[in-house]
Design a protein that fits this description.
EC number: 2.7.6.5
GO molecular function, one term: kinase activity
Number of domains: 6
CATH superfamily of the largest domain: Hypothetical protein af1432
CATH topology of the largest domain: Hypothetical protein af1432
Catalytic activity: GTP + ATP = guanosine 3'-diphosphate 5'-triphosphate + AMP
Structural class: alpha+beta
Keywords: Kinase, Transferase
Family: Belongs to the relA/spoT family.
Distance between the termini: 78 Å
Strand content: 15-25%
Largest sheet: 6 strands, mixed
CATH architecture of the largest domain: Orthogonal Bundle
Length: 696
């Protein structure tokens, strides 16, 4: 553990203007506050914040961050308060300490909810000041180094899983690769102990047997570059155990089949020397096609810059080579902390967009599971590069689609997308993007996010925005149903209902506003009796109990039936405008619309029945037809011709039975109304190609 004078000397070595007295005061404060508290290892508890502060000095961070590291557990684990910290060390330190402080454990929460709430507070604090993230990462790294002292295997695995899923990816996203690698290694040891032991054992064996070979290859690379006049540093190492295990799992191969176990780093004096060295290495040894990446011209989102290539050394061994300048290497290893910008009042430009995306995800996520899922998607995926037509560069996860790209550019653009061009060619919105694609989004102001997009988008930002838009639309549609039901209920009362009676009803039913009441009515959370009684107390006292069919005075008109939203057209009867319809309304679900003669209505005894009618402005629906065609060439084309002649679009066609001399098809058609569908069935029956046709 660092002594008090050692910590202060470390800070003064790179920041002579630091407040020595305040640093000493913070050290003494944390020792006094933590007092006799012990860690699982048996060490005094204050050794932990001191070691975290030591990690911060290695990154040469400002004195406020060092003091925050010393005090980061005092508010949670001792009698210290944020107000006391502010009085003794100033508002900036108090704000940082409050940001880093973990939420107290809430026993009533599930593990997922607890993790999500911790993450929620953490992301909000991080968005205000990224130093919160740096202290938190150092805190987690030191806790992982001492994780083996915890006796409970279940607790060790839980902490390791959280580290692997959240903190290691966060470290990677801000370019702190040293932290990321060590966290992954320590978590890997707990989560996959057998695989960890096997791989580290094999690597140790390789190192002892071929240790001289690593040095020999590094020397060969250095000599080849020196002969061309380049001054470089070359070092070699075996790959990270977790990286090897992940590659084995992804490729479904054994350890022996991993060919590029060794990696070499070439550090040059200038960017131009990087490209010169790359050319020399490719001329000296054969490069492996498809394994070259230029992160200097197109850096990663976290600011990482380097040239990556793989070579076949002496016609037998594959080796990976990374070429970068000394300055690039320093920034690559410690990322955000290496080019610290707080004294200039800002943060590195590459981080702004990413942090903004995380905050958008935080605001859009509906519950704990959604927040964790969307955040992991945002921080833990390999990247590709795509361009706008004007040349702006966007980094996206592998497998990203034009919809992901549109939301990455701007949330409004994603919501208005109706089509896309990739490299000038029209493509479906579910098309996966490749490195270097130029993506043009075609938009319409009248468009809105579609529920079906969730089946193929891969970014957390897009998924969160789509879900939020769908929820808002669903709520608006349910509120519209509720309003129509409310108006019908009000008409059944003996007297006319005014605004005051409505406001009084909202208070009696304990809703905060009118919209909440309408949503509750539309989603069957309250019934007609409760609404009547709230509007006019005593009005429902003598009302007979309704059984199955409501005592509505008029049918409620519906239109704009959006599948998956407030309405759902039943799959059993496929109602279309012109059919007599009824709605089944269940608590917390949308209204399921059936034709009045649907046999499935017998299963609706547990639902509220709503008398419905089609609004005059309804613009059609999907009807289903079963057609038996003669098994001879051209009959399917003739049926399609009937659909085309009657201006009906085929949504889905499926052969359900194949039995000579007939083939049976079920066809879903977009039709205007019942009359339109009836004409199509009649035309099919008149065709020589069709043996029988019926609506189903």
């Amino acid at each position: 553990m660092l002594r008090q004078y050692e910590l202060v000397e470390r800070v003064l070595a790179y920041d002579p203007d630091a407040d020595e007295a305040m640093l000493n005061r913070a050290y003494v404060y944390t020792v006094q506050k933590h007092g006799s508290q012990k860690r699982a290892s048996g060490d005094p508890y204050f050794s932990h914040p001191v070691e975290v502060a030591g990690l911060m000095t290695e990154l040469k961070l400002d004195q406020e961050t060092i003091i925050t590291a010393l005090l980061h557990d005092t508010v949670e684990d001792t009698l210290a308060t944020v107000d006391e910290v502010e009085r003794l060390f100033g508002p900036e330190v108090a704000r940082l300490v409050d940001g880093v402080t973990k939420l107290s454990k809430i026993e009533t929460m599930s593990d997922t909810e607890r993790a999500a709430e911790n993450l929620r507070k953490f992301l909000l604090a991080m968005s205000e000041d990224l130093r919160v993230l740096l202290v938190k990462l150092a805190d987690r790294l030191h806790n992982m180094r001492t994780l083996h002292y915890i006796k409970s295997e279940e607790k060790r695995r839980r902490i390791a899983r959280e580290t692997m899923d959240i903190y290691a990816p966060l470290a990677e996203r801000v370019g702190m690769y040293e932290y990321m690698r060590e966290m992954q290694l320590l978590a890997f040891e707990q989560l996959e102990p057998e695989a960890y032991a096997t791989i580290t054992g094999r690597l140790a064996s390789i190192k002892s047997e071929e240790g001289a070979q690593v040095g020999s290859i590094a020397l060969s690379i250095k000599q080849a570059l020196a002969e061309a006049g380049l001054k470089v540093e070359v070092s070699g190492r075996e790959k990270h155990p977790f990286s090897i295990w992940r590659k084995m799992a992804e490729r479904h191969v054994s350890f022996e089949q991993i060919t590029d176990i060794m990696a070499f780093r070439v550090l040059t004096e200038s960017e131009a020397d990087c490209y010169t060295a790359l050319g020399l290495l490719h001329r000296t040894w054969q490069m492996i096609p498809g394994r070259f990446k230029d992160y200097i011209s197109t850096p990663k989102m976290n600011g990482y810059r380097s040239l990556h290539t793989s070579l076949i050394y002496n016609n037998a061994m594959r080796v990976e080579v990374q070429i970068k300048t000394q300055e690039m290497h320093r920034i690559n290893e410690f990322g955000l902390a290496a080019h610290w910008a707080y004294k200039q009042g800002g943060m590195p430009d590459g981080q702004v967009g990413w942090v903004r995306d995380l905050v958008e995800i935080l605001e859009a996520s509906h519950d704990a599971d959604e927040l964790l899922e969307n955040t992991k998607m945002a921080i833990y995926q390999d990247r590709i590069f795509a361009f706008t037509p004007k040349g702006a560069l966007y980094q996206l996860p592998k497998g990203a689609t034009p919809i992901d790209f549109a939301f990455a550019v701007h949330t409004n653009l994603g919501g208005q997308a109706v089509g896309a061009k990739i490299n000038g060619r029209h493509v479906p919105l579910r098309t996966s993007l490749n490195n270097g694609d130029v993506v043009e989004i075609i938009k319409s102001r009248s468009s809105e996010p579609q529920l079906s997009w969730l089946a193929f988008v891969v970014t957390g930002k897009a998924r969160a925005a789509i879900r939020r838009a769908v929820r808002q639309k669903e709520r608006a549609e349910i509120a519209e149903i509720g309003r129509k039901l409310y108006e019908e209920i009000a008409d059944r009362l003996p007297s006319k209902i005014g605004k005051k009676a409505l406001n009084d009803a909202i208070k009696r039913l304990k809703y905060s506003n009118e919209e909440e009441l309408m949503v509750a009515i539309g989603s069957a959370k309250i019934d007609d009796r409760q609404v009547m009684e709230a509007l006019v107390p005593g009005s429902a006292a003598n009302l007979p109990a309704s059984e199955g069919w409501p005592s509505q005075k008029r049918a409620i008109a519906v239109r704009g039936l959006t599948p998956g939203m407030a309405f759902k057209l039943a799959d059993c009867c496929h109602p279309v405008p012109g059919d007599r319809i009824v709605g089944l309304r269940r608590v917390g679900k949308g209204v399921e619309v059936h034709a009045i003669d649907c046999l499935s209505l017998a299963n609706g005894v547990d639902a509220d029945w709503i008398d419905l009618s089609w609004d005059a402005r309804t613009d059609g629906a999907v009807g289903r037809i079963r057609a038996e065609l003669y098994n001879r060439p051209g009959t399917l084309a003739e049926m399609a011709g009937v659909f085309a002649k009657n201006h009906a679009n085929v949504v889905n066609l499926e052969m359900t039975q194949r039995e000579n001399p007939f083939h049976t098809y079920e066809v879903d058609l977009e039709v205007r109304d019942l009359a339109h569908l009836t004409r199509i069935v009649s035309a099919l029956r008149a065709s020589d190609a069709v043996a029988q046709a019926d609506r189903i």
